[in-house]
Specification:
Layout (H helix, E strand, L loop, with lengths): L1 H9 L2 E2 L2 E2 L16 H9 L8 H5 L6 E4 L6 H10 L3 E5 L6 H14 L3 E4 L6 H12 L5 E9 L18 H17 L3 E9 L9 E8 L4 E7 L9 E5 L2 E5 L6 E6 L10 E3 L2 E3 L10 E6 L8 H10 L9 H20 L3 E2 L1
Parallel strand pairs: 3-4, 4-5, 6-9
Antiparallel strand pairs: 1-2, 6-10, 7-8, 7-16, 8-9, 10-11, 11-12, 12-15, 13-14
Length: about 350
């Protein structure tokens, strides 16, 4: 992700394609303890600092971006804030609610802007689904399913170690939890979670989380790295219809109920008999349509962060939202440990 940030700041090549250059920030330079990463930065014409202290002493640096293993976030975030820098931290912002509070306290003490890079709020399918839900076209949301299914196992390196904050709940779960709460509200009542350890590593390689909101909405989050047939990326049930995104790059498919009473339902043959209850509705009682995915702007996060520094806009990913997400993750781990739902 450090490479992602640098590439999108400067319009550099990233995984074979050129990233769009930012119109609000530039990359003053990078520091990394990995010499190969430093060599890569130099190859792209970027300044490489000899130490973190040299970076923090540079008056040209307004913002530091922390893209390191999760277990090192707090130490570096607090150090950068104490040095008078505004800070963007990669997700998950912390490994506990208490750790997050110490970071927030440092930002407030130093009068600096601090947020987490929840970049998947700007995923095209999520932005499109959120706008559809807000339009009321499928009625009041009753439940939402959000998932990422893969079959390559947990990523290697530090993501497999507990001390560094590895595991799929931290890696992908934090994204899906953040999306679910941003779409449906932060009034979390309780959380239930099961963690997979199918590959025998010391951290979870999959998670199943049910988030019950006080509004009655239930959000189900699934992150699996051992599935060879993937289920839909997102599935939302409303009182007037259902919306679904099948996969990355897909548009939103919608089926809307136009007449609840349907006299034209014909029984469907099931394995051992007929069923009218589970039969498809007649075409005259529903409306089918597709919502084309929104064009998204990956630099909107940075535009907002810079506007927040200039006191022109509130943070798009604010401290209270960060707090609830961390409390849900903390409750998920506790639920998986005890086997019980955990109330917030």
């Amino acid at each position: 992700m450090g490479q992602w940030h640098a590439a999108h700041m400067e319009g550099l090549s990233y995984f074979g394609s050129k990233a769009p250059k930012s119109d609000v920030v530039r990359c003053a330079g990078v520091f990394d303890i990995d010499s190969e990463k430093c060599d890569l930065a130099r190859m792209h014409g970027l300044r490489v600092y000899s130490s973190l202290d040299e970076l923090l002493c540079d008056p040209d640096v307004d913002i530091t971006v922390i893209a390191v293993p999760n277990g090192s976030h707090e130490e570096l975030v607090v150090k950068c804030l104490n040095a008078g820098k505004n800070v963007i931290c990669e997700k998950p912002v912390a490994m506990s609610p208490e750790s997050l509070e110490r970071m927030i306290a440092a930002s407030e003490k130093n009068g600096r802007v601090f947020s987490v890079h929840q970049n998947r709020r700007w995923d095209d399918y999520f932005v499109t689904m959120k706008k559809l839900v807000e339009s009321g076209k499928i009625g009041t949301v009753m439940s939402m399913e959000s998932r990422v299914h893969g079959s390559n196992g947990i990523p290697g390196d530090w993501r497999k170690t507990k001390v560094d904050g590895g595991g799929m709940l931290y890696d992908w779960g934090v994204h899906m939890i953040d999306q679910a709460l941003k779409m449906n509200g932060y009034d979390v009542e309780r959380v239930f979670c099961h963690l997979d350890y199918l590959t025998g590593c010391e951290v979870d390689d999959g998670c199943f989380i049910d988030i019950f909101l006080k509004s009655g909405i239930v959000c189900r989050v699934e992150i699996c790295t051992y599935n060879f047939i993937s289920l839909p990326l997102m599935y939302v049930r409303g009182t007037d219809g259902t919306a679904m995104v099948c996969d990355w790059g897909s548009d939103v498919e919608v089926v809307r109920c136009t007449a609840w009473k349907d006299n034209d339902i014909k029984p469907v043959k099931t394995a051992s008999g007929l069923s009218k209850t589970m039969a498809p509705r007649s075409e005259r009682s529903i409306e089918k349509f597709t919502v084309k995915k929104e064009e998204v702007r990956v630099h909107d996060y940075y535009r907002n962060f810079c506007a927040a520094i200039d006191k022109k806009e509130p943070l798009a990913v604010n401290h209270d939202e960060m707090r609830v997400v961390m409390r849900v993750i903390d409750a998920a781990f506790e639920s998986a440990r005890t086997g019980d739902a955990v109330r917030l």
